[in-house]
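Limitations

Structures in this collection are predictions, not experimental determinations, and the ligand pose is part of the prediction. Treat each record accordingly. The example that follows, with magnesium ion as the small molecule, is included so readers can see exactly what is and is not provided: the inputs are given verbatim, and the output is the predicted complex.
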Amino acid sequence: MAEIFMEDVTKTFSVNGVLLSVLDGVTVQVEEGEFVSLIGPSGCGKSTLFNIICGLTTPDRGRVLLGGHDNVPAGEVVSYMPQKDLLLPWRTVLDNVILARRAVGRERAAVQSEARELMPLFGLTGFENSYPAELSGGMRQRAALMRTVLARQRVLLLDEPLGALDAITRTRMQQWLLKVWNNFKQAVFFVTHDIDEAIFLSDRVYVLTSRPAKVCLHLSVSLPRPRRAKLVTAPSFLALKKEIMRALQVQ
Amino acid sequence: MAEIFMEDVTKTFSVNGVLLSVLDGVTVQVEEGEFVSLIGPSGCGKSTLFNIICGLTTPDRGRVLLGGHDNVPAGEVVSYMPQKDLLLPWRTVLDNVILARRAVGRERAAVQSEARELMPLFGLTGFENSYPAELSGGMRQRAALMRTVLARQRVLLLDEPLGALDAITRTRMQQWLLKVWNNFKQAVFFVTHDIDEAIFLSDRVYVLTSRPAKVCLHLSVSLPRPRRAKLVTAPSFLALKKEIMRALQVQ
Amino acid sequence: SPGSDSPGNQNDRSSAPDSRELQPVTVMLDWTPNTNHTGLYVARDKGWYADEGLQVDIVEPTEGGTTQLVATGKAQFGVSYQEDVTQARASDVPVVSIAAVIQHNTSGFASLKDKGITRAHQMENKRYGGWGSPSEEAVLKAVMENDGGDFGKVQILNIGSADFFTAVERDVDFAWIYYGWTGIEAEQRGLKLNFLELSELEPALDYYTPVLITSEQLIKDNPEFVEKFMRATAKGYEYAIKQPDEAARILLKNVPELNEQLVLASQRYLSPRYRDDAARWGEQNPQVWERYAGWMYQHKLLPKMIDTKKAFTNEFLSE
Amino acid sequence: MSRLNQADRPVNMGDKLWPALFCLLAFFLAWEAGVRLLDIKPYILPALSQVLNTLGDMLPLLARHSQSTLLEAVTGLAAAVGVALVLAALMDLHPWIRQGIYPLLVVSQTVPIISIAPLFIIWFGYGILPKVVVVALVCFFPVVVSLVEGMQSADCDMVNLLRVMGYSRWQVIRLVRFPAALPSFFAGLKIAGTYSVMGAVIGEWLGAVNGLGVFMTRATHAYQLDRVFAAILIIILVSLLIYAVIELLAHLAMPWYYNERRDD
Amino acid sequence: MSRLNQADRPVNMGDKLWPALFCLLAFFLAWEAGVRLLDIKPYILPALSQVLNTLGDMLPLLARHSQSTLLEAVTGLAAAVGVALVLAALMDLHPWIRQGIYPLLVVSQTVPIISIAPLFIIWFGYGILPKVVVVALVCFFPVVVSLVEGMQSADCDMVNLLRVMGYSRWQVIRLVRFPAALPSFFAGLKIAGTYSVMGAVIGEWLGAVNGLGVFMTRATHAYQLDRVFAAILIIILVSLLIYAVIELLAHLAMPWYYNERRDD
Ligand SMILES: Nc1ncnc2c1ncn2[C@@H]1O[C@H](COP(=O)(O)OP(=O)(O)OP(=O)(O)O)[C@@H](O)[C@H]1O
Ligand SMILES: Nc1ncnc2c1ncn2[C@@H]1O[C@H](COP(=O)(O)OP(=O)(O)OP(=O)(O)O)[C@@H](O)[C@H]1O
Ligand SMILES: [Mg+2]
Ligand SMILES: [Mg+2]
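Predicted complex:
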């Protein structure tokens, strides 16, 4: 049974009376423990798709099943990391990362000690009591990811988690992300603009067209894991990259 | 004679009494009509280097020659496009792009008609009288670049001009940038974090270490021009990419 | 006739009185224009100031600023009252009273009939609404003790800018009013008041209020000017004494914001009281000045005793 | 890319007037009904209908007084802007000057104007000047604060860029710092404009011949509260008029600030 | 990543006090010298030295009056905050409510308080209440504006995120909207605090038994301008005291806002 199953999802916004067709019959699914990427041009509707999964937006048409069920509160199945890091500036890093876990009513002290243990993995040791404003961009992203992972839901929805980082930091963070994923075994649904990143991380990649978004390519990435950075120059990698570039018409 | 020649440039900032060594003996040069990229981790000192060329920061040590001369006003040799687009929000696109040219005292009407003719090349036709806030991110970058190009100086200093764009738009803009460069034949000194971008655009690439920045690799890119997007999957391209990745230690 | 020597001048004259020859004068009132000021408005309206070569501006005052402003010459004349002039002179503010607008003190303590304050000692255990004058407490003390009352049992409240009627609406039992204005308004409203006139409670308190003042400097430098002003002003008040209704209408014409009924009734009350028992309007009796200043000094309201002869003068009154 | 300075945008009063008009109507109804039902005496709180009646009757007189007050308010506002420009330019010169002057300006706002009223007359006489000074005193503070903050909000890098292009120091002030300060300046000016009429009325209360302040004092002392309230309505209207004019000027001066972002 | 809300940060009065003290000293010197050289009469403008002398002499009396005034100012400020919280919460419920109330609040600021003073007395008597009301009227506007703007500045996406996590509507208000409004709230409170003492003095001027306003009225009527100015100095000091306390509270309530960004 798929963790996330969306069928024929369609959404049109109306802005000041003007209709804006954003999603046009999108069908995607994410299986247990799988890493799936979604790639598409800016403004095509990727964040809207995530909002639909989370129940923040209702689709005009189509079906959304979470863990095989209709109508479950999204928060019980998915853990969402939006495009911005959205750390609460008035809470310390420690209090931020336990936010999702506290929502389900866990005891504070227990959650805190659990978070403390994971600080090294997320490279935040020593910053437990710092406020977000005191962190670098990369550290903020790691804290936001930690908050998402710590929710311990079956699926992580990551909306361009590395988008704000420079290319070099980003490459390092990709490898680290795979390590974290390996550790927690949650399914990941991952939005990105970056072709290399999508292939490097994923088991499968969906490519969307520009607005209104349709799935124009669905690709399995059968590259072996664990993956190292130099994989991006491997011929098998490049074949996939060419295919995606063609689908996105950037040649 | 090199358009830009910097030798052994060293710079240390003092922030609240704490010394921050940023540049440590950097030597680079840009020849006439050449496209040269500078790649380095975030915060290593790339913008500082550009500021030194522009005369906004004075180096602690080292020599800077513009057009072979010491002590010429930077504005007479280089045209600078900073990391942010810095369009004046209160001026229309047309009035923004002629800003640099007007500084040297050209007549307004003449400069405006010159700019109007170039609008199609920069994809801004129909937006001459729009304000920057009405433009998309990509259009703003193109307008900022147009302002820089229109200054008609012998060297363009471009500080991450495509950094704010998503990966797909960015790939398209790279090709377009090469077209513009081909049109105007000015030398370009280009800062980026993106290895693909640096190789794809340049004749030569300087790779900097993290702070304090030193040149750790100097690479000639002898790939044939004109270059197409699919070049990034060519073996000769990948060889260069691996070399830079090794220098940046992201493997 | 004067000014007929040049044809240009004549032209001007035919269209309007030649204002260029008129000397500007500023009179600063003590309060909003009211029937105390009728004479000033009449004199201006009838052109009697212009006849003396004066162009008079009547300005409404700053809170407590009139005396200082007259002393510094920012206004040539002002409306004040004897207590204020005495205080001012004791603080070396060089102003001089040049006319008593009303011969006897028409102010006193007013309260609603049902409070039952018909004698001064009944003010005990009542709440008094004051306005921040330094002498209030002494006056209350004196009049109560004259009547065998205990001043210590009065609660004093500063009612600031609020008027008598709003004040007595809930928090105040009695207040100090001018009968000629507030008392008349109460009559108009059909409100029954007990009114204890100050002059009857304590003879020393039958002082002049209001008075016209000017500065020592002006009297020294230009007595003719003061004389001209006073000649016209006296004419104005004489007219108001003889023709209360006409005078009231002139006031209303100049200050249309006022309440017509109130002004008419007030004027009828006040007109006979301007001159009252005096030989001429404006007359000031040295005894009144001496008596009141002495009283104030006794009650420690003055830092030093003043020379009352310098505080007022009758020399600018006509005849 | 988000709208420039979006966070700074003042709440736009002209956006949707209906809810405000509705609330206003409700308030008026409550007033009228309250006075009638509770049988409140007219010298304590006159009914709205009575106030409007009086307003109609007194319109010519009120119009005359309003003219003086409006003149004082506008002149005072202009003076405030002038003073604010000079002060802001001074404070922009060096952080030390700003740190020296700014706290004193804040402190000056704590002094109740009424307590130094006689000084004003002595210094400035009875003409329009003391009222203009009071209006300027009430109004210059929001303008100067918004100007200083607006000029500080100018992007340093923008300034640097134009310097590299070869523009002179003064050209850069004209091209960058001044326009960058405009949105904030107009926000401050709107606040100042709202207070300017009240300032003029207080100024008139210090001593005057004409004006709504004089009208109100006289009406108060003649126990005619309906006239006082009629004057208050006029004060509100005149204030709104000034506000609207400033809003219009802002739109004319900063089309770039009000234009909507178009999608490409 | 730049400092959160950097543009909103109020100019910090405590940052560098030396330039301000220097300017203050210069002002005091000019005052003293001006009075002496121009031979200004003490009933027009007393010399600073005389004012300080009087201040020393009258200190016990002034202290007593200040107590009442301070009490009124602080109570009024607290009332203003209470009213502002309620109004801001109301306006946060629905944009229509905001659009309905907000313009009326702006309009209410144009009404000169002194002209409706009699109503105050009738409604609230002469106790501490009318002063508290005047202070609250003067102070609630900046607080409510800053609160509304602060709550609006809360990131919608942050709210959504917490909703998805499973937090309830009220928990989200407590966790996000309220803390997000704090910096703006304190900025408004500082402005309000600066005006609160002046408000109390105006309130006392409407009628009172005790307080700096009463002291000043009495001194004015007795031509003791040195006492008036001594009272003004006290008003300034008390205002600064309130400002400092608010600044302190802000630091305690928002450590995250004042902490400096560390480099990683
Ligand atoms: N609530 C909304 N109301 C109206 N239009 C909306 C709304 N949300 C999104 N849109 C519009 O829908 C389109 C798709 O937005 P969305 O944020 O899903 O794109 P995206 O693929 O996530 O883009 P990016 O890669 O830039 O994040 C955009 O044009 C956006 O303006
Ligand atoms: N004027 C200055 N004073 C003090 N420190 C500075 C100054 N300018 C830059 N720095 C510091 O110098 C370092 C290098 O800054 P610079 O902007 O040159 O980096 P960069 O390579 O351009 O980074 P990025 O890729 O993020 O743009 C940073 O740590 C920065 O904080
Ligand atoms: Mg998105
Ligand atoms: Mg940089």
